[in-house]
């Protein structure tokens, strides 16, 4: 039925009516589907976005024609219907049409208590949501003649007008108030934050009331057939006798179970037929809407009405299980199941999470650098973290920023927080690799190590031993212990990942430095290791000392002696990685960081080192000073170190080749990939390649065993991207290290950006943190140039990305479009990257 009044139209929701999500909203469309499935729904009329917009502007529909859709003297409700349920909307208003006359009539038919309750409820919601009066004056009350009189008087006093008695006027005012609320600035900003476009429209649905109050069995409830937080099949919900709307969910006491339950009374005890009917409707919805729905129902004098149905609200874990179940039952295709899961949500499954439903007291904020949450006692140094771990007490390590010396502390800690740093600072990269929750760049807290106190923005002083919870997913630091949700790597997750792997058309490897990382990478289904940062292998206590000895070796023969001690350690490292990866590709990056990163930073550290090396403190200090650089990230690191002190790369290459022989002998054949970091000129590659080739030849001859290997280059300076054509002549693969490439393209320190990144993003200088989401316009341009030039000079060259961007959905889309072979990211981001990549391929 289509009616015209002036220009504002409305449409009765019937099976054949012309109702569309983009004109009438998702609720109106869903209600039409319920009608088509023949569910018993009260008569309902939809107003389009356009109609509602005109109403907000002061135009009126033909109210009496609208009212007459519902028969004589109707009571109706109005509910919002935007294009996406997530965008919210104004509160629903029930019982429109209640007035003195209707009250009197209902007293006869439904009894005075029910009639008064209905009238009171309408006065309260009209006063608060439409007339915008103080809610305190219209608190819900027990229905009585006195309460009703008081509410009517309060309304009249506050508005200087008696409570409107004309149902048409009531309805028009409700429609206008809801329309205007939607167009207000606050509501617009709120929904824009949830992804709504600035001009998102609101539709409204007007529905005849099913009363839920009155004689015989009357009441209302909400039912769903899966548990939204686990996704397990189980009926949940509540029913409340003599109630309306969502009272059954809102009340603390009085609501009863839906199905028979040893804990108490149930609707099934009272009305088994109604529950059987609801079960059938749930199944009908599941099959026809291809979704698990939550159904709002009302029983009016024994008759069941379905008023509304929405997707069951769900956690990430629930979403995965529901999608997999629907696909397993053939209700949706596997592709559809993959499409329904937000890749970011998958990362929630891999870690503990702060329970979103629980209370939290936030004491500081920073950049969410590694997801998951952990509770522990504060410790301000790595030694304390290790001591805490030894006692079996979880701890949260707090540092101004972390250095390689903190690695052991980070291993021992349940979570890491730093005052400084950004998405690719040391703490962030290491924590993601370890799967440890981490928040960096917490500029609203100060660590004063001397006094052993951590001071928050509101002046709160925390000491070592105090308990905090770190939420690396939101970037918040919370006071004390809070409720958590455990990780869920269950069968549903595994099934979804299997489907994603089958659908993916770009490889997903892991950045893995240790056997533990490699095992995680395998568990999450990585296609290999795309970046093994070998320097991380030297942070263990015994090795750090050997590294120190190497750095302090003055003469080549001394250095050779130390490297000879490191060789078996590295060989064992690589053998283990190859074994774990079982023939999958393993890309090993030669030593990269500036040597001084391996030197002690504190006075105690210098003293410990002097002791270990049996040297005077002054000697050690002098050496540390000699190695210090004004700008170490742009100094003696990467291939520059490899060319200046070639014995280090020689040792690493030999270790890789010997491990290749060993691992291939015992297991799957290994073709190692060796990657040269921080290249900016072709000649650098030539020099390193010549030495590595001759080392390979030497090892082959010594061992009498042949093996293959691939040598490649890490493109992480702008010049390397521009000269990728030359460089590719000597490189079987090019892997874009977008952390350094972003740093150097912007001229923006990856370790210091955290200080102002928030303010830059807030003011729109950068749309996003470029260390987090690949800057497609700038850094991306270099990637495209590098890929094109590399491919032009060497058509089969393998292209990949191994910076932190490798785990980000937008960046993966960019790499896939640019024809890259694979992305590589922290092991814990492999499933996220896999799902994002699969969705792109669907
Ligand atoms: C990079 O620079 O992108 C990279 C992967 O290397 P690292 O983070 O170790 O500098
Ligand atoms: Mg780098």
Automatic annotation (TrEMBL):
<dbReference type="InterPro" id="IPR000121">
    <property type="entry name" value="PEP_util_C"/>
</dbReference>
<dbReference type="Pfam" id="PF00391">
    <property type="entry name" value="PEP-utilizers"/>
</dbReference>
<dbReference type="Pfam" id="PF02896">
    <property type="entry name" value="PEP-utilizers_C"/>
</dbReference>
<feature type="binding site">
    <location>
        <position position="739"/>
    </location>
    <ligand>
        <name>substrate</name>
    </ligand>
</feature>
<feature type="domain" description="PEP-utilising enzyme mobile">
    <location>
        <begin position="393"/>
        <end position="475"/>
    </location>
</feature>
<dbReference type="InterPro" id="IPR040442">
    <property type="entry name" value="Pyrv_kinase-like_dom_sf"/>
</dbReference>
<feature type="domain" description="PEP-utilising enzyme C-terminal">
    <location>
        <begin position="493"/>
        <end position="840"/>
    </location>
</feature>
<keyword id="KW-0808">Transferase</keyword>
<feature type="binding site">
    <location>
        <position position="738"/>
    </location>
    <ligand>
        <name>substrate</name>
    </ligand>
</feature>
<feature type="binding site">
    <location>
        <position position="589"/>
    </location>
    <ligand>
        <name>substrate</name>
    </ligand>
</feature>
<feature type="binding site">
    <location>
        <position position="716"/>
    </location>
    <ligand>
        <name>Mg(2+)</name>
    </ligand>
</feature>
<feature type="binding site">
    <location>
        <position position="533"/>
    </location>
    <ligand>
        <name>substrate</name>
    </ligand>
</feature>
<dbReference type="GO" id="GO:0046872">
    <property type="term" value="F:metal ion binding"/>
</dbReference>
<keyword id="KW-0460">Magnesium</keyword>
<dbReference type="GO" id="GO:0050242">
    <property type="term" value="F:pyruvate, phosphate dikinase activity"/>
</dbReference>
<feature type="binding site">
    <location>
        <position position="716"/>
    </location>
    <ligand>
        <name>substrate</name>
    </ligand>
</feature>
<feature type="active site" description="Proton donor">
    <location>
        <position position="802"/>
    </location>
</feature>
<comment type="function">
    <text>Catalyzes the reversible phosphorylation of pyruvate and phosphate.</text>
</comment>
<feature type="active site" description="Tele-phosphohistidine intermediate">
    <location>
        <position position="426"/>
    </location>
</feature>
<dbReference type="InterPro" id="IPR036637">
    <property type="entry name" value="Phosphohistidine_dom_sf"/>
</dbReference>
<dbReference type="GO" id="GO:0016301">
    <property type="term" value="F:kinase activity"/>
</dbReference>
<feature type="binding site">
    <location>
        <position position="737"/>
    </location>
    <ligand>
        <name>substrate</name>
    </ligand>
</feature>
<dbReference type="InterPro" id="IPR015813">
    <property type="entry name" value="Pyrv/PenolPyrv_kinase-like_dom"/>
</dbReference>
<comment type="similarity">
    <text>Belongs to the PEP-utilizing enzyme family.</text>
</comment>
<feature type="binding site">
    <location>
        <position position="740"/>
    </location>
    <ligand>
        <name>Mg(2+)</name>
    </ligand>
</feature>
<keyword id="KW-0670">Pyruvate</keyword>
<dbReference type="InterPro" id="IPR008279">
    <property type="entry name" value="PEP-util_enz_mobile_dom"/>
</dbReference>
<dbReference type="InterPro" id="IPR010121">
    <property type="entry name" value="Pyruvate_phosphate_dikinase"/>
</dbReference>
<feature type="binding site">
    <location>
        <position position="740"/>
    </location>
    <ligand>
        <name>substrate</name>
    </ligand>
</feature>
<keyword id="KW-0418">Kinase</keyword>
<dbReference type="InterPro" id="IPR018274">
    <property type="entry name" value="PEP_util_AS"/>
</dbReference>
<protein>
    <recommendedName>
        <fullName>Pyruvate, phosphate dikinase</fullName>
        <ecNumber>2.7.9.1</ecNumber>
    </recommendedName>
</protein>
<keyword id="KW-0479">Metal-binding</keyword>
């Amino acid at each position: 039925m289509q009616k015209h009044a002036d220009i504002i139209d409305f449409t009765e929701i019937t099976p054949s009516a012309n109702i569309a999500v983009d004109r009438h909203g998702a609720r109106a469309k869903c209600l039409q589907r319920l009608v088509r499935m023949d569910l018993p729904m009260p008569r309902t009329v939809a107003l389009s976005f356009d109609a509602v917009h005109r109403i907000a502007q002061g135009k009126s529909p033909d109210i009496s024609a609208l009212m007459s859709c519902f028969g004589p003297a109707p009571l109706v409700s109005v509910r919002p219907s935007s294009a996406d349920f997530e965008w919210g909307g104004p509160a629903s208003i029930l019982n429109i049409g209640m007035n003195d006359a209707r009250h009197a009539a209902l007293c006869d038919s439904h009894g005075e208590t029910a009639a008064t309750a209905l009238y009171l409820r309408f006065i309260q919601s009209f006063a608060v949501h439409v007339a915008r009066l103080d809610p305190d004056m219209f608190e819900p009350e027990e229905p009585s003649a006195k309460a009703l009189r008081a509410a009517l008087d309060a309304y009249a006093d506050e508005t200087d007008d008696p409570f409107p008695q004309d149902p048409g006027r009531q309805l028009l005012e409700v429609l206008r108030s809801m329309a205007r609320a939607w167009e207000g600035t606050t509501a617009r900003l709120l929904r824009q934050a949830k992804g709504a476009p600035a001009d998102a429209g609101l539709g409204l649905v007007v529905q005849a009331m099913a009363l839920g109050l009155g004689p015989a069995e009357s009441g209302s409830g909400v039912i769903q057939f899966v548990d939204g937080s686990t996704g397990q099949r189980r009926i949940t919900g509540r029913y409340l006798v003599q109630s309306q709307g969502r009272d059954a969910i809102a009340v603390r006491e009085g609501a009863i179970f839906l199905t028979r339950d040893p804990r108490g009374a149930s609707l099934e005890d009272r009305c088994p037929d109604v529950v059987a009917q609801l079960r059938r409707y749930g199944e009908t919805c599941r099959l026809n809407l291809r979704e698990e729905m939550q159904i709002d129902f009302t029983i009016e004098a024994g008759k069941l009405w379905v008023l509304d149905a929405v997707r069951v609200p769900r956690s990430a874990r629930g979403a995965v299980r529901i999608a997999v179940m629907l696909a397993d039952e053939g209700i949706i295709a596997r592709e559809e199941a993959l499409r329904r899961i937000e890749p970011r949500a998958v990362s929630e499954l891999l870690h503990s999470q702060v329970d979103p439903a629980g209370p939290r007291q936030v004491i500081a904020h920073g950049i969410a650098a590694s997801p998951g949450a952990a509770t522990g006692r504060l410790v301000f140094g790595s030694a304390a973290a290790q001591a805490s771990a030894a006692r079996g007490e979880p701890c949260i390590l707090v540092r101004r920023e972390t250095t390689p010396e903190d690695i052991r502390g980070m291993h021992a800690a349940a979570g890491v927080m730093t005052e400084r740093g950004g998405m690719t600072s040391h703490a962030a990269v290491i924590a993601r690799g370890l799967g440890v929750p981490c928040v960096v760049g917490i500029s609203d807290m100060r660590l004063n190590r001397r006094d052993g106190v951590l001071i928050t923005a509101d002046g709160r002083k925390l000491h070592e031993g105090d308990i905090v919870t770190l939420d690396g997913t939101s970037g918040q630091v919370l006071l004390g212990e809070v409720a958590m949700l455990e990780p869920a790597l269950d069968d549903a997750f595994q099934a979804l990942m299997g489907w994603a792997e089958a659908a993916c058309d770009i490889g997903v490897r892991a950045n893995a430095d240790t056997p533990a990382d490699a095992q995680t990478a395998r568990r999450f289904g990585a296609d290999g290791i795309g970046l093994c940062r070998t320097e991380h292998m030297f942070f263990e206590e015994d090795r750090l000392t050997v590294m120190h000895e190497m750095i302090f070796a003055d003469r080549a023969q001394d250095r050779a002696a130390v490297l000879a001690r490191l060789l078996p350690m590295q060989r064992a490292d690589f053998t283990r990685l190859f074994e774990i990866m079982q023939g999958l590709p393993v890309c090993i990056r030669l030593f990269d960081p500036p040597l001084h990163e391996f030197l002690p930073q504190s006075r105690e550290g210098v003293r410990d080192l002097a002791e270990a090396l049996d040297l005077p403190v002054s000697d050690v200090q002098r050496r540390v000073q000699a190695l210090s650089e004004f700008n170490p990230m742009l100094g003696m690191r990467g291939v520059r170190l490899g060319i200046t002190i070639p014995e280090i790369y020689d040792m690493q290459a030999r270790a890789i080749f010997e491990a290749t022989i060993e691992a291939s002998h015992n297991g799957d054949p290994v073709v190692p990939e060796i990657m040269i970091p921080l290249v900016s000129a072709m000649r650098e590659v030539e020099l390193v390649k010549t030495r590595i080739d001759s080392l390979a030849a030497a090892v082959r001859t010594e061992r009498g065993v042949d093996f293959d290997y691939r040598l490649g280059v890490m493109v992480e300076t702008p010049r390397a991207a521009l000269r990728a054509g030359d460089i590719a002549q000597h490189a079987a693969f090019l892997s874009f290290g977008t952390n350094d490439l972003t740093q150097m393209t912007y001229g923006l320190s990856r370790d210091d950006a955290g200080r102002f990144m928030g303010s830059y993003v807030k003011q729109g200088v950068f749309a996003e943190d470029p260390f987090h989401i690949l800057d497609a316009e700038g850094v991306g341009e270099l990637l495209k140039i590098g890929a094109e030039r590399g491919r032009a000079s060497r058509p089969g060259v393998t292209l990949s990305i191994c910076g932190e961007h490798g785990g980000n959905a937008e960046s993966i889309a960019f790499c896939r479009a640019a024809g890259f072979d694979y992305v590589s990211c922290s092991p814990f981001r492999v499933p996220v990257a896999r799902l994002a990549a699969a969705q792109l391929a669907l």
